[in-house]
Design a protein that fits this description.
Elements (H helix, E strand, L loop, with lengths): L1 E5 L4 H11 L3 E8 L8 E9 L5 H10 L3 E4 L7 E9 L6 H9 L4 E9 L7 E9 L2 H17 L3 E3 L5
Protein name: Amino acid-binding protein
């Protein structure tokens, strides 16, 4: 969802508290300093997990606390590409490799299929990444190239355009 909050200290935390109050799980927060309105407000992109039956309670809390919901329920990652990674993926910390993409806030690994033939053999994975924009996808692929080079992983890139 995208929220509009006042551009004053403490408002980001105040906007996130209702999500926690209704039992939602915050996955990603992007505080958009370049978003502004004539009302002196900022945009905040929030990806959450919340049971559908609690959504109306969340929207009511936002309204009560003066937080404007600009949109919700839309997928924000519109660009998708898949790559193949071949190497000692588990031994070189596959979680770290995925985290380097996910921590950007503008791209995330959404699917992974892993094949491991034997402990000492190289494994392979099809890794699907989604990003906010084409430019963000290019940055995410560049991060993955750098990580692959550092960890001596062969990266066959992108399978779709």
């Amino acid at each position: 969802m995208k929220l509009e909050i006042r551009d004053t200290p403490g408002q980001l935390v105040a906007a996130l508290m209702p999500i926690s109050d209704v039992g939602g799980n915050i996955k990603t927060v992007i505080h958009e300093h370049d978003f502004s309105s004539d009302k002196g407000s900022l945009g905040v992109e929030v990806v959450i997990e919340i049971p559908k039956e609690r959504l109306s309670a969340l929207l009511n809390l936002f309204k009560e606390r003066g937080i404007t919901v600009i949109r919700f329920g839309e997928e924000r990652m519109h660009y998708q590409q898949s790559v193949i990674l071949i190497g000692h993926l588990i031994h070189t910390n596959l979680g770290d490799t995925v985290d380097r993409i996910d921590k950007t806030g503008f791209a995330e690994v959404t699917k992974m299929s892993l094949a491991m033939p034997a402990i000492q053999e190289r494994s392979s994975a099809k890794c699907t990444i989604k990003a906010l924009s084409r430019e963000h996808m290019d940055k995410a692929i560049e991060i993955l190239r750098d990580v692959s080079k550092q960890k001596e992983i062969l990266m066959i890139e992108p399978l779709e355009f």
